[in-house]
Amino acid sequence: MEFKKLICKTIVIDQNMINRRIDNVIFNLYKNVPKSMIYRLIRTGKIRINIQKIKPFYKLKKGDIVHIPPINTINKVEKKIILCKTIKKTIISSIMYEDEFLLIINKPAGIAVHGGSGVKFGIIEIFRHIRPKNKYLELVHRLDRETSGTLIIAKKYSSLKKLHEQWINNKIKKKYISIVHGHWPKNQISITQPLLKTFQSNKKRMVVISDKGKFAKTFFLVKKYNTSTTSIEVTPVTGRTHQIRVHSSFLGFPIIFDKRYGNTKLDKILLKKNKNVSLFLHASSIQFKHPENKKDFFISAPLSKTWIDYEKSL
Questions:
Q1: H/E segment holding residue 173
Q2: Residue 144 is among the residues annotated as catalytic for this protein
Q3: Residues 176 and 291 reside in one and the same domain
Q4: Which candidate in 133, 256, 258, 276 could, as Cys together with 262 as Cys, close a disulfide (CB 3.0–4.6 Å)?
Q5: Where is the RNA-binding S4 domain (predicted)?
Q6: pLDDT value at position 78?
Q7: What is the pLDDT of residues 92-122, one digit of tens each?
Q8: DSSP letter for each residue of 246-296
Q9: Rounded to whole angstroms, how far apart are CA atoms 49 and 63?
């Protein structure tokens, strides 16, 4: 294993970094350095702010001068992102709204929001690659890889923090559109079932209904009955992992082409119509207060042509 010694570094805190914890900032700067080493450098006063020793939970202020000593770091080869023109064009054309604080896209199905678990890179890494001048880009929330629709990226830490506060206080409203197997009963308008994250023997994550899980509630509204499926609008009250997919499957109406919680036999019948389809779950709209001007903000993401054409065939 090779090591390299990084030189001393001095950072002057600007508007984009205020209110962030010093330990989290250092973690992001030195991703190849063990956290235990960073905590030790802060505790012993090697990492200082304005020449003073600080605690790991110190929140940065504008104008703070952070001094970082030489640090031994593992010399890992950085993964280069190589984008084909088609992917780059798709991502750029997916932008629905942008200002100084936010970037909102209509995420295409099939692209992860971030790298990890066998995925080299996702939406956030792509934007950091094609927007190197943007000093700060972070996901405000997540969507499953196969889910399409509205996705918010913060361009300032202050925006991220304010939106997360809205999320915690249940002030952000999201709606989804989906197509499920069977004819959804009109009187089944909601479900409240706790959800628990589990891991299978193959290390695959599964979410199950369990009394040990976290509270989760979802509302459903029938939009249209098809021959053997139903087009529905979904409003999750909570935002648990795989919530809509698990709740709809639990009620006996799994989302079509859901490889994890769906009905494979019924999916095979529908695949005869078109084999180039995936999970039919789309984050159709989102409503919140803009983190800067505090005005009500609403945006909706149109369905893809593939979705529209396939739904017509059902």
A1: strand 173-181
A2: yes
A3: yes
A4: 258
A5: 20-87
A6: 53
A7: 999 999 999 999 999 999 999 988 766 778 8
A8: HHHHHTT-PBTT-TTTS-HHHHHHHHTT-SS----EEEEEEEEE-TTT--E
A9: 10
Is residue 185 pLDDT above 70, yes or no?
A: yes
pTM confidence score: 0.79
Active-site position among 23, 64, 99, 144:
144
Structural domain of 65: 3-72
Looking at the structure, tell me whether residues 7 and 34 fall in a common domain: yes
Average pLDDT for the chain: 89
CATH of the domain at 97: 3.30.2350.10
Of 264, 306, 267, 253, the closest CA to residue 110 belongs to 306
* Rounded-to-integer distance, Cα 115 and Cα 156, Å: 21
Q: Using the 3D structure, point to which of 161, 181, 199 is the last residue of a domain.
A: 161
Number of domains in the chain: 3
Asked whether residue 265 is domain-assigned, the answer is yes
Instruction: With beta carbons less than 8 A apart as the criterion, state whether 285 and 97 touch.
Output: no
User: Last residue of some domain: 41, 72, 103?
Assistant: 72
In a 3-state reduction of DSSP, which class is residue 112? coil
Residues 303 and 314: their CA atoms lie apart, in Å, by 16
Strand, helix or coil at 231? strand
Residues 106 and 201 in one domain: no
In the numeric block, which tokens belong to residue 275?
Answer: 């084999």
pLDDT band at residue 28 using 50, 70 and 90 as cut-offs: confident
In a domain, 78, yes or no: no
Q: What is the pLDDT of residues 254-308, one digit of tens each?
A: 999 999 999 999 999 998 777 778 899 999 999 999 999 999 999 999 999 999 9
Compute the average pLDDT of residues 241-263: 96
